[in-house]
Write a structure and sequence with these properties.
The protein is an alpha+beta fold. It has helices spanning 23-30, 79-92, 102-115, 121-127, 137-152, and strands at 2-8, 11-17, 49-52, 55-58, 71-73. α2 packs across α5 and α3 (102-115) packs parallel to α5 (137-152).
């Protein structure tokens, strides 16, 4: 076990965990931040996407040993990190159906919007590789386009 200090949603945290513990389980089991979901465990589905040092990261494949001094933003901190408009529009457009993948999808969308001010459909398809079993991709794309337009206005 190792004591590892980092910041989550702007708050300092220290956890005493095995260094090989995935960030996903640090968040869910040790910090009770359960908005980040377990999907596949092999970084393919994106349900566990968080921002690690400003980059969208599949938390099932990021490990505690790499967290010292890091900054993590989860879905619980997305509004405070500038994603409140995205979250509101997501609800307004009924983007989610079952909702399971949506925290990871929102985190990926916010990262794209920070990187690309006016994303095209091709940009969205290339950057949002999260899997939605309900198939809400057209609504995801619409929400991203609308938020991008409102942020440019």
């Amino acid at each position: 076990m190792s004591a590892i200090s980092f910041r989550v949603n702007g708050q300092p945290q220290t956890v005493d965990v095995d260094p090989s513990t995935p960030l996903l389980w640090v968040l869910r089991d040790h910090l009770a931040l359960t908005g980040t979901k377990y999907g596949c465990g092999v970084a393919q589905c994106g349900a566990c996407t968080v921002h690690l040092n400003g980059q969208p990261t599949r938390s099932c494949q990021a490990f505690a040993q790499d967290l010292a001094g890091a900054e993590v933003v989860t879905i619980e901190g997305l509004a405070a990190a500038g994603g409140e408009d995205l979250q509101k529009l997501w609800v307004q457009l009924n983007v989610a159906q079952c909702g399971y993948c949506q925290s990871g999808m929102l985190m990926a969308a916010q990262a794209l919007l920070k990187q690309t001010k006016a994303p095209t459909d091709a940009d969205i398809d290339a950057q949002i590789s999260n899997i939605c079993r309900c198939g809400t991709y057209p609504r995801v794309r619409d929400a991203i386009h609308r938020v991008a337009k409102s942020r440019r206005a």
